[in-house]
């Protein structure tokens, strides 16, 4: 029998015994409709009673300039970011981590700042633990994607070449689809060589084209070039050719700009590849 409190201002004692928790859960099941005792509620109750909420797998909503997100976290580590509906998001977290996340009212400030800074184009450090579920190749792909500047895009083939496996274009797509932290790791900046955007790991309302336009990418011009078979743009003044969105050519005057279908065409006219965007 629990000893009564002698001081009414004392905090109630925590129940840490598994048998007591089981008894409480059984009592709840017996006195409430089955629908009221869902797995998330049971997980939250257990965390509260045992005092483990600080280290538990949690999630919270976050409003951003590119859409409303759900963010799963554990302690000071991000686990998953998505624009999916809440039921789909919870199911994905459970599938990936083997536990039902607890819903928090808001994201811890430090983590919210990381996500918002990523959206603002500021490169964010990612702890090895946050990508521990990925293969070395997948981590290498995401590391390369993280270095693409805001307002620029690269192709899946470019990433494959940069990681030293030019034939692994499809594997690059798979690695980007496995990105658990879109926006912090900007996989939305990787598109198809034909100008089409390709798939995106963010999901739901987190749309690839919306994010790229927010960052200043002229998708209409980019896709018009792709339809015309034009892959590079060069400068008549510098004799350098670049990828279409490279910052060094992005604001060049049209009268100084020349377009190329291929690397061979550019080099045959005396142009050399840009050292910033490394188009070839």
Furnish the topology, listing elements before pairings:
Blueprint: H1 18-31, H2 39-50, E1 57-64, E2 67-74, E3 77-82, H3 86-97, E4 102-103, H4 109-119, H5 136-145, E5 154-155, H6 156-162, H7 169-177, E6 190-191, H8 208-214, H9 219-227, E7 232-235, E8 240-242, H10 247-250, E9 257-260, H11 263-268, E10 272-273
Parallel strand pairs: 1-4, 5-6, 8-10
Antiparallel strand pairs: 1-2, 2-3, 7-8, 7-9
Helix pairs in contact: 5-7, 6-7
Broad structural category: alpha/beta
- The end-to-end distance, rounded to whole angstroms, is 76 Å
The second-level CATH architecture of the largest domain is 2-Layer Sandwich
What is the share of helical residues? 25-40%
| Distinct helical segment count | 11
**Biggest beta-sheet profile:** 4 strands, mixed
Count all strands and give the number: 10
Can you tell me the CATH topology of the largest domain?
A: Double Stranded RNA Binding Domain
Which blocks of ≥5 consecutive residues have pLDDT under 50? Answer: 1-6, 8-16
Order of helices and strands: HHEEEHEHHEHHEHHEEHEHE
Q: Within the largest sheet, what's the order of strands?
A: 3-2-1-4
| Rounded average pLDDT | 84
Rg for CA atoms: 25 Å
- What general form does the structure show? elongated
CATH class of the largest domain: Alpha Beta
Number of domains: 3
What fraction strand?
Answer: 5-15%
């Amino acid at each position: 029998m629990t000893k009564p409190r002698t001081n009414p201002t004392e905090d109630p004692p925590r129940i840490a015994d598994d048998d007591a928790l089981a008894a409480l859960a059984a009592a709840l099941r017996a006195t409430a409709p089955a629908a009221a005792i869902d797995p998330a509620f049971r997980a939250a109750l257990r965390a509260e009673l045992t005092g483990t909420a600080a280290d538990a797998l949690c999630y919270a909503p976050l409003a951003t300039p590119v859409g409303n997100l759900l963010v799963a976290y554990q302690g000071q580590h991000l686990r998953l970011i998505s624009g999916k509906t809440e039921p789909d998001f919870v199911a994905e977290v459970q599938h990936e981590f083997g536990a039902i996340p607890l819903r928090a009212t808001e994201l811890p400030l430090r983590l919210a700042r990381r996500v918002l800074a990523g959206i603002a184009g500021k490169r964010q450090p990612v702890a090895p633990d946050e990508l521990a579920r990925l293969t070395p190749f997948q981590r290498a792909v995401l590391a390369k994607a993280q270095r693409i500047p805001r307002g620029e895009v690269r192709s899946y083939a470019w990433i494959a070449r940069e990681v030293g496996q030019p034939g692994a274009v499809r594997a690059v797509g798979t690695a980007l689809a496995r990105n658990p932290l879109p926006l912090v790791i900007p996989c939305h900046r990787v598109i198809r060589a034909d100008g089409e955007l390709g798939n995106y790991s963010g999901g739901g309302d987190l749309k690839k084209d919306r994010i790229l336009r927010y960052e200043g990418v002229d998708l209409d011009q980019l896709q018009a070039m792709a339809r015309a078979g034009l892959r590079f743009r060069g400068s008549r003044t510098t004799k350098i050719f670049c990828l279409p969105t490279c910052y060094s050519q992005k604001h060049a005057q049209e009268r100084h700009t020349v377009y190329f279908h291929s690397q061979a065409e550019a080099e045959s006219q005396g142009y050399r590849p840009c050292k910033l965007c490394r188009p070839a």
